[in-house]
Sequence to fold (227 residues):
Amino acid sequence: EDKVVQSPLSLVVHEGDTVTLNCSYEVTNFRSLLWYKQEKKAPTFLFMLTSSGIEKKSGRLSSILDKKELSSILNITATQTGDSAIYLCAVGGGGADGLTFGKGTHLIIQP
Amino acid sequence: GAVVSQHPSWVICKSGTSVKIECRSLDFQATTMFWYRQFPKQSLMLMATSNEGSKATYEQGVEKDKFLINHASLTLSTLTVTSAHPEDSSFYICSASPGLDTGELFFGEGSRLTVL
Fold:
């Protein structure tokens, strides 16, 4: 059975801090690892990491895939209150396979 | 980017009634769509895989007679919660796959169902 584990489950930091969110996976057929940010409604896409693209960066957010360790991290630097959300990690088998989601990390940024 | 539309955004219904939620891919054809359910402060749980022109594939523990899925065309899948009960109250999200090799999915906005 495919499994995606995220840690920590929740995290409270102050504005300006840097945070690192972790995701590890065990899947039979790995094609991609995706990070999503979920606030009030459906998840919004952040990054997709594959064997051919193991590091992505967008503004204050960056992510790295470690295929050897079967894990990924999501870094957020200079956090802002608007970064408060649930961050979901999901692994896809590709094609017609659905994503397997982790339980998410609930991030709270205090002013 | 690809757009997936879900309707309604929220619905309140009485216990015992049925509710239909629609999921449409607006600018691409999706032979496969997925239905997820999310409880408060929990992650997305895959309920079923909806296949155009054939029966849906349900995940273990999901009642197929309660959660009817119909994928009538390449751009539309529907989830009908039959004889809804308060424990069916949840956030239901659909996603569609344009068949990319990377497995990227595009999500609808979700539908919040409250059963009184």
About this structure: Chain A touches chain B through 26 residues (CB under 8 Å). The longest strand of chain A covers residues 19-26. Chain A has a mean pLDDT of 90.
